[in-house]
Write a structure and sequence with these properties.
The complex is a heterodimer of chains A (265) and B (321). Chain A has 265 residues and is an all-alpha fold. Chain A contains ten helices and two strands, in the order ααββαααααααα. The longest helix of chain A has 37 residues. Chain A is elongated. Helices cover 31% and strands 24% of the residues of chain B. In chain B, the strands form three sheets. In chain B, strands 5-6-7-3-8-9 form a six-stranded mixed β-sheet, sandwiched between helices. Chain B has a four-stranded antiparallel β-sheet with strand order 11-12-10-13, covered by helices on one side. Chain B has a three-stranded antiparallel β-sheet with strand order 2-1-4, covered by helices on one side. In chain B, strand 1 and strand 2 form a beta hairpin. The two termini of chain B are 29 Å apart. Classes of the chains: A mainly alpha (265), B alpha/beta (321). At the A-B interface, helix 1 and helix 5 of A face helix 1 and helix 2 of B.
């Protein structure tokens, strides 16, 4: 299994798609850092008399929650981890390299297993890289704007495990989706369609759906709100992580079953 | 000695279509076995069933008694070339080989060795998308021998190759056989493989037509090759030959084939009878004609199997399909 994971890792890093996705995730994270600086600087002072509430403070993120939001700004990029998982499987089918992969590993579930593990590791690594980049970029910006680098660094341990966990699980979910829908374009469209459109509609229509959908499970698992998730109708972090893992496992199991039976022509 | 590959009653049905039907044959070690049949006769499906890529409807295919899926380190036992298109276009050739080597737990030195063997060392850092068809075919062959396997399975490896490429491929295959490997190579053209194979397995419409050695096929086909004569005096030629007890087979408007005749015998006969001859050539495609007769190729739609608009070759005596 180690050999197969190493081979999958080599296959991922010797093509452009995963790097493009990781690069996009970095760009989006950088933009989100800017957004947080613009919107979460300072604190809101209660209004005096009839006037509107006013912002006070230094104009940079400074409360613990604001700093946690800044440190975890890459969280929104979990979709890129999912797409890397999708590409990890579908690229093999798209370019027929799956033939070579099955010849080396004729027991197909082992190959899918190796892809799940590889994607989880790559997803986690992407999260670590984005978190590190955010700490460095956000921290230096804070320093320059009169905030505290050290204060941001102190919040990283609070959010990093959750973000890393969610990225790994999303990549696993991506492998599951990809092995079920081996057509690369279809898998990507369905993934984006679900997470960008359908999930929001479902949550709006069905009361209480938020905690059950993958994004809700991920939000619970990331636990960016430090135990306040229930206020937003979410599960606790470990319930969310378990649910997300279950989604990944169910998709991967169904995908493996489909792939194992399929004739490769 | 056990055969390297044993195929027993192998069958594959796609809906009502019997792509492969009750197919059994053996492939011996140290020999090149041609797996021959027209396009669509089930060759590729059979080879993919051998390799566990397509699940058979019934029957079995084993390597030394073991199905592909149960082989320990399969790439060290069986190497395969299936098609020249299964590469990621932006991956470098060396990286493709490294990924297979890692998955098969082979040392990195094997990658260098096989690149050297197929003459791709200089372009190993290039992306496969920039490769010509011939180079891709070589890369496929390099991938196949990465694990130093005892059995090689090659599906139409000559497809799309230029004459030099085909010559190189023949040398490569003969070299691999000289190492004691069992080689099963499919083709829709016998002539392409005539100089390369020792044994032939001929299939048509998914069924076995004949398994024999190339030498036996040649002798069954009529022993010594014949002569092809193009002449405006077909009737007189036939009469003259009949005088010697020899028959002439008409194969074209003004062409006959004299089976078993040699130029040394036929030349003086024609001279003595003072028959006008436009062309006198050795009959080269004897074997190919037998092959075509065995597999009942309908008039070619690909323009590759039947170069002249001659009537379909008559079935050879002594061979039935």
């Amino acid at each position: 299994m180690t050999a197969l994971v190493r081979a999958e890792w080599l296959k991922l890093r010797t093509t452009a798609a995963p790097w493009v996705l990781a690069g996009l995730a970095a760009v989006v994270t950088a933009l989100l850092v800017v957004v947080i600086f613009r919107t979460q600087g300072g604190t809101v002072a209660p209004s005096s008399g009839n006037g509107p509430p006013t912002f006070v403070g230094s104009g940079v993120p400074q409360t613990a929650q604001q700093l946690r939001n800044l440190a975890a700004s890459c969280y929104e990029c979990d979709l890129f981890a999912l797409l890397i998982g999708v590409v990890c499987v579908t690229a093999d089918f798209r370019h027929k390299t799956v033939t070579a992969a099955f010849l080396a590993s004729p027991r197909r579930w082992r190959l899918i297993g190796a892809k799940l593990l590889t994607a989880a590791l790559v997803g986690a690594a992407l999260a670590v890289a984005l978190l590190a980049g955010t700490l460095l970029g956000g921290g230096l910006a804070l320093d320059a704007e009169g905030g505290s680098f050290a204060a941001l660094a102190r919040q990283v341990p609070a959010v990093a495990p959750g973000v890393v966990l969610v990225f790994a699980l999303f990549a696993v979910l991506g492998v599951g989706v990809g092995s079920l829908l081996t057509n690369q374009v279809a898998a990507i469209i369905v993934s984006l369609g679900w997470f960008l459109v359908l999930e929001g509609i479902l949550i709006a229509l069905v009361h209480g759906a938020a905690r059950w959908v993958p994004s809700g499970a991920a939000e619970a698992a990331a636990d960016v709100t430090r135990g306040q998730g229930h206020l937003y109708g979410l599960f606790t972090w470990w319930q969310g992580a378990l649910l997300l893992l279950l989604y990944g496992a169910v998709f991967a199991a169904a995908g493996s079953a489909v792939v194992a039976r399929r004739d490769v022509t | 000695m056990n055969p390297a590959i044993e195929v027993r009653s192998l069958a594959k049905h796609f809906g009502h279509v019997r792509a492969v039907d009750d197919l059994s044959f053996d492939v011996a070690e140290g020999r090149v076995t041609g797996f021959l049949g027209p396009n669509g006769s089930g060759k590729t499906t059979t080879l993919r069933m051998l390799l566990g890529l397509v699940a058979p409807s019934s029957g079995s295919a084993t390597f030394g008694g073991v199905p592909y899926r149960d082989l320990d380190r399969p790439l060290c036992h069986v190497g395969a070339v299936l098609e020249a298109t299964s590469f990621h276009p932006t991956r470098r050739a060396a990286d493709h080989l490294r990924s297979v080597a890692i998955a098969a737990r082979l040392p990195a030195s094997r990658v260098r060795a096989v690149l050297e063997l197929v003459g791709l060392s200089d372009v190993a850092r290039r992306r496969v998308g920039t490769f010509s068809l011939g180079m891709r075919q070589r890369l496929e062959l390099a991938t196949a021998v990465l694990g130093d396997p005892r059995v090689l399975i090659l599906d139409e490896p000559a497809n799309g190759l230029d004459p030099q490429g085909i010559q190189w491929l023949r040398t490569f295959i003969r070299y691999q056989a000289s190492l004691g490997r069992a080689i099963l190579v499919s083709s829709h053209l016998l002539s392409e493989m005539e100089e390369t194979v020792d044994d032939v397995v001929i299939v048509s419409e998914g069924r076995l037509v004949l398994q024999t050695t190339l030498a036996d096929l040649a002798s069954t086909a009529g022993g010594a090759p014949g002569m092809r004569v193009r002449t405006p005096e077909l009737a007189r030629l036939s009469a003259v030959l009949a005088g010697y007890g020899v028959a002439a087979r008409q194969v074209g408007v003004d062409e006959v084939v004299v089976d078993g005749a040699t130029p040394e015998w036929l030349g003086p006969v024609l001279a003595q009878a003072q028959i006008v001859v436009y062309e006198l050539t050795r009959q080269q495609n004897r074997l190919e004609e037998v092959f075509l007769g065995l597999t009942h190729v309908p008039p070619s739609v690909h323009g590759a199997t039947s170069p002249s608009p001659s009537p379909s070759p008559s079935p050879s005596p002594g061979l039935t399909s």
